[in-house]
């Protein structure tokens, strides 16, 4: 009693983590130690039936994992065989689909991309599998590099002609063969494959071969049933998978097995008794066989009978109650902190825990209270500065665009007037005056889309007078979109990019369309200029998503490889974000020598950041 009385204050003075660890050890290890002691004293008789049952359960568990792996292979084959979209594309390609016209290469790329994306999507989150699609016209589609393995060589295998004999959803399980993928040979010398036919009616037009590594199966054996020897056998008794890869390909005939379901026998091998359990797979026709040393199984399964069970139950209940009592006492402050967190989550920032102490919970309570105080201060600071900050950013971004444009136009007018005085210059001055009124005289930051389109029309007139070759402007705006309030002069940088960089100041066509869709207005600006390659397009999108704001504020002029100025587009992106919030986004599509399409998705909501 004296020792226990001295131990309690010592335990209570320690940290919360230490107290929880000690309590867990006492409440868990003591019953476990008593159980182990009673197990060694009271268990004398070996129970054969329990050993057999455990062997069956382990093999059934292994069969579940292996069947899931094979089901995954079938899922890939079924999807490619039955997916309507894939069937349409693959049948057309196998039938010799010709790609013609200006979009031929794009259509070919899209067909291949849809097939490979479908394969990669199916194999991205499951077990690692190599998928080969071989069509009759010689086309192949894989989720691996053709430099590692040429799938055409599969057509030279002895089993390949048998695929044409398959019917409907039948599968051909090829079994274990030497690994053909260089990166896998070191870790898995063998692979397991399954094949399906792609058919248009009765006649096949292609084949799907799904391959996994043999180690994916043998790893299941080692992970799930490491205490017994497990093998995967073909219908003729050939070892397809085993923890010892050196035995793969050898014959093993289980003794006295049934043809269906699960069968367990006690057999003699090398003068030693084994529990032999076999499980027939209806999916593949293969069999799983496990061998468990009988002595080891009996030794481990010396049962805990009535007395042991009763003593175990009593000891477990006693120590569980002790554990729950101590743990409840230690964690009571945490419960209080949890309830306070729920109160804060509902919006009440005035509540405080007032939990103090020298252990981790006391420190946590104090830190939580200090955090709430700091949050209140930050909310007040943000409220005071947010409005001024947004207005200043909008003013700065607005100021960056107009002066550059006005300088170029005025310089052009000056040069024309110096050379000659004519009606053309008068028209330029007239259009410029309209733009000056819209950009300088008006004080409102937002105007109807109808006025913005009129500005763009005047701007195009000026730009066509500046350059020798004319650019045609086509505007198609749905009446519902004309009264949409938009930032003034926001489309000019996009049109300027199309003229100078996309069309290179040559003749061409620019189309502007505005459509109203559910929840948004979609504004598209399309040119038939030189376009951009995928790398350039990716750099531009990355610049908009990560550095658009920095580029807009600092004014650093950058051009992509395709000639598209990212500063103007960044300014537009940032202004629209500030106006419409995070619901606004830009979608850019471009093809070399075809043109560029910029789509602005404007959400239907209250605009912000403008007076």
Helix and strand composition category:
alpha+beta
- How widely separated are the two ends? 79 Å
- Number of individual domains: 3
CATH superfamily of the largest domain: PAS domain
* CATH fold assignment of the largest domain: Beta-Lactamase
Beta strands, count: 17
Provide the CATH architecture of the largest domain.
2-Layer Sandwich
| CA-based gyration radius | 38 Å
Q: Can you tell me the CATH class of the largest domain?
A: Alpha Beta
Spans with pLDDT under 50 lasting ≥5 residues? 1-7, 547-558, 560-564
Taking all residues together, what is the mean pLDDT?
A: 79
Strand order of the largest sheet: 2-1-5-4-3
The helix tally amounts to 16
β-sheet strand percentage:
15-25%
Largest sheet: 5 strands, antiparallel
User: Shape from CA axes?
Assistant: flat
Helix fraction, binned, reads 40-55%
């Amino acid at each position: 009693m004296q020792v226990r009385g001295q131990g309690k204050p010592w335990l209570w003075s320690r940290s919360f983590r230490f107290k929880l660890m000690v309590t867990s050890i006492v409440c868990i290890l003591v019953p476990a130690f008593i159980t182990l002691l009673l197990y060694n004293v009271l268990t004398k008789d070996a129970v054969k039936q329990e050993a057999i049952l455990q062997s069956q359960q382990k093999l059934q568990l292994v069969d579940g994992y292996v069947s899931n792996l094979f089901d995954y292979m079938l899922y890939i084959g079924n999807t490619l065989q039955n997916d309507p979209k894939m069937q349409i594309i693959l049948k057309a390609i196998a039938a010799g689909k010709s790609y013609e016209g200006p979009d031929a290469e794009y259509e070919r790329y899209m067909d291949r991309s849809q097939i490979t994306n479908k394969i990669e999507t199916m194999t991205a989150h499951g077990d690692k599998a190599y998928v080969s699609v071989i069509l009759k016209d010689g086309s192949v589609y894989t989720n691996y590099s053709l430099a590692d393995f040429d799938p055409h060589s599969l057509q030279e295998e002895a089993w390949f002609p048998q695929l044409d004999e398959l019917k409907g959803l039948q599968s051909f399980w090829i079994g274990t063969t030497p690994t053909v993928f260089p990166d896998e040979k070191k870790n898995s010398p063998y692979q397991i494959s399954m094949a399906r036919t792609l058919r248009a009616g009765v006649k096949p037009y292609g084949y799907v071969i799904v391959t996994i590594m043999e180690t994916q199966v043998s790893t299941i054996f080692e992970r799930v049933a490491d205490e017994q020897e497990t093998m995967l056998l073909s219908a003729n008794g050939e070892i397809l998978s085993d923890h010892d890869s050196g035995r793969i390909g050898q014959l093993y005939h289980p003794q006295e097995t049934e043809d269906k379901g699960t069968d367990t026998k006690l057999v003699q091998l090398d003068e030693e008794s084994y529990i032999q359990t076999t499980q027939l797979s209806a999916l593949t026709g293969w069999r799983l066989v496990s061998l468990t040393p009988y002595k080891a199984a009996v030794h481990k399964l010396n049962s805990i009978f009535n007395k042991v069970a009763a003593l175990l139950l009593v000891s477990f209940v006693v120590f569980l109650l002790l554990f729950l009592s101590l743990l409840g006492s230690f964690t009571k402050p945490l419960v209080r902190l949890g309830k306070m967190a729920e109160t804060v989550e509902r919006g009440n920032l005035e509540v405080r825990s007032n939990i103090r102490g020298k252990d981790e919970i006391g420190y946590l309570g104090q830190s939580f209270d200090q955090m709430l105080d700091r949050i209140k201060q930050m909310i007040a600071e943000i409220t005071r500065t947010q409005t001024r900050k947004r207005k200043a950013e909008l003013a700065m971004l607005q100021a960056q665009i107009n002066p550059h444009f006005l300088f170029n136009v005025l310089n052009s007018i000056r040069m024309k007037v110096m050379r000659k005085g004519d009606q053309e210059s008068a028209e330029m001055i007239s259009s410029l005056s309209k733009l000056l009124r819209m950009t300088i005289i008006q004080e409102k930051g937002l105007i109807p889309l109808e006025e913005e389109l009129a500005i763009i029309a005047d701007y195009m007139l000026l730009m066509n007078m500046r350059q020798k070759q004319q650019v045609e402007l086509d505007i198609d705006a749905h009446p519902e979109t004309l009264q949409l309030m938009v930032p003034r002069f926001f489309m000019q940088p996009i049109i300027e990019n199309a003229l100078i960089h996309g069309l290179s100041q040559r003749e061409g066509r620019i189309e502007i369309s505005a459509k109203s869709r559910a929840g948004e207005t979609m504004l598209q600006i399309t040119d038939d200029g030189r376009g951009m390659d995928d790398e350039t397009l990716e750099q531009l999108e990355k610049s908009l998503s990560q550095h658009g704001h920095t580029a807009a504020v600092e004014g650093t002029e950058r051009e992509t490889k395709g000639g598209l100025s990212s500063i103007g587009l960044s300014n537009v992106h940032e202004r629209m974000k500030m106006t419409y919030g995070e619901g606004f986004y830009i979608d850019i599509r471009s093809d070399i020598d075809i043109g560029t399409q910029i789509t602005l998705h404007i959400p239907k909501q209250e605009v912000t950041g403008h007076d």
